[in-house]
From TrEMBL:
It is an enzyme of class 2 (transferase). Its EC number is 2.7.1.-. This is Probable RNA 2'-phosphotransferase. It comes from Solitalea canadensis (strain ATCC 29591 / DSM 3403 / JCM 21819 / LMG 8368 / NBRC 15130 / NCIMB 12057 / USAM 9D). Belongs to the KptA/TPT1 family.
Amino acid sequence: MNEKQIKGISKFLSYVLRHNPQEINLSLDANGWASVNELIEKARIKNIEITIDELEVIVSQNDKQRFTFNDEHTKIRASQGHSINIELDLKTTEPPEYLYHGTVTKFINAIKSEGLKKMSRQHVHLSMDRTTAEKVGSRIGIPVILSIRSGAMHRDGFPFFISDNGVWLTDSVPNLYIEF
């Protein structure tokens, strides 16, 4: 399997596991888990052939660790980023003093007035370091990195979670906690 095939399957998995399982009539449980066998079978609806070995490669080698297996490798789910309502069963975790968010200039005025909102996703996504935030922001243009006073937010009662792949999650970030 070459890089282009891996990327194509990864994009397909992101779409059906995070946003639209109905596209292939895939069943997800309340925690976002799908049967690996059902996923492989139903991917064929879109003429996508995936083997268990290919899924193993994609899950283990994806640079952002977007997907995870259950312990038996019989179920798979996206680690975070869902626009569909699922419960990831994440535990509230105390964040570091600062986390970071990558965005672009065209959103700065809205963020200054309204803060960071989860929009169509279940959470606002924050990065542990500026480099990761820069990569995230650069996907949609020239990145602007915002420093989030996450420690202060946590002390003020805002819950934080960390996904299986190390992305920090929260429901919103009021503008008074953002350093522009």
